[in-house]
Design goal:
The protein is α+β, with helices and mostly antiparallel strands and 96 residues long. It contains 3 helices and 5 strands, in the order βααβββαβ. Strands 1-2-3-4-5 form a 5-stranded mixed beta sheet, with helices on one face.
């Protein structure tokens, strides 16, 4: 599941409960910018950021763990829906 950077779940003050690994806090809650979060089950497993160029939509994905094929296919569907919602064409999903 993709959570928007301003999702209320991510806005709570209990960040240590949301992401126990303090080393990942800077990735999810940087000083500038708000990446979205990738949620697998009940655990945040990475971040995402959109990039647009004209009508092309690219999703920059930073995963903290390997995702099962089932979760990857669900993520692909959500990214396609997001691109369509924005009136854009999905150009790529780029893992960083």
């Amino acid at each position: 599941i993709m959570l928007n950077g301003f999702d209320l779940f991510l806005q709570g003050k209990d960040r240590d409960l949301i992401v126990p690994d303090a080393g990942k806090h800077k990735d999810l809650w940087p000083v500038l910018g708000r990446p979205g979060a990738v949620l697998s089950g009940t655990e945040i497993v990475g971040t995402w950021r959109p990039k647009t160029a004209g009508k092309d939509f690219t999703l920059r994905l930073s995963l903290w763990t390997n995702l099962p094929k089932r979760v990857r296919s669900q993520l692909q569907i959500e990214v396609e829906r997001l691109a369509e919602h924005r009136g854009q064409r999905l150009a790529a999903i780029v893992e960083e």
